[in-house]
Structure prediction request, 348 residues.
Amino acid sequence: MTEPIAVEFDGDCWNNPAQFQQQLNQHPQGQPLVLDLRSEGPSLELLGITAVINDWLKNRQQSPHIVHVWRWSNPVEFVPYRRIACNDLSHFFTMVRDYWQHTEPTLEQQLQYQQPFGIFIGRLTMSRAAILYNLMPAGTGSIHSQVFASLMQHVQPFPWRVSDQHRRNLDIISHWLPLHKQVDMFDWFDRGLIPSVDSKSVRDQFATPVSYAHTNASLLQYYDRFAVEIVCETYTQGNTFFPTEKTIRPLMAAKPILVYGPRYYLARLRGMGFRTYNEIWDESYDLYQGPERWHLMRKSMNTLLERSRSDQHVILTQAHEIARHNRRHLEKICAHQIDLTKHDYQKI
Prediction:
């Protein structure tokens, strides 16, 4: 195999398009082209990567068959290239074993919540910032008293202080807020009004596999504070399906979820044998991505927010049965009792 060309991402942002193009141009004529996706799961089409490759192939009059995509974890998007060591099942399903809690939470424990919703944000993106701003005191329609929120300590600048001049970024703040509201949001984050509940930084979870497990275990100690987790996934744009610990951790903890992710994310979880909460609250938001998805998620949240505590308990009792199924189904997947090697992830 020829020396791979790395394709670097931060969620819905392609970080090295210029370097990538330069390496393409220097690639030996007639040699196989190997792209290293580093076990990430973006949409290559929406980020423009397939267009760059196809133009390169056309200029060189070469077949797509010389392109090898290595370690790409997006099983739902078709590309006319050869896949090498591409795991359809996200590696985060295996990693959950490192922080698995062997005692299943009881319904009584789940109903002792202080706030209906919880949200944990690690690396801050434009969309996650807009979601937090919408939920918290400064945002329009704030419900901060109803949300247990944590924002990891940051070792990098806020995303609005990083230039997109040399990146291809799908996560654009103008899609979320008008200019005057953007300025208000930036000032609000500068004041550091949302703390990290465990004082860990984004870098902590990537230091070693042990650090990754400790970071997730640390967050689990706060799961008794809220009833439903708002999950903000890593890849949220285009045709992609890449569940990370953000989804898998609450599945393991038998915690109901609403997911800010790409279109059909919930449908694809159901295709794997998990259950979602469409019998309890509106999940039509799964047909959308971006701000439209979030606005519909907020409406779904009202299923709990507009109810009394006793009525919330009725709803959450139903949700707990679904969450218990998901935890046990996840355990079977991790124990290889369920074979997903031939599962058709593209089927919705």
Notes: The chain is about 35% helix and 15% strand. The chain has a mean pLDDT of 93. The first strand starts at residue 5 and ends at 6. Residues 309-334 form the longest helix (26 residues).
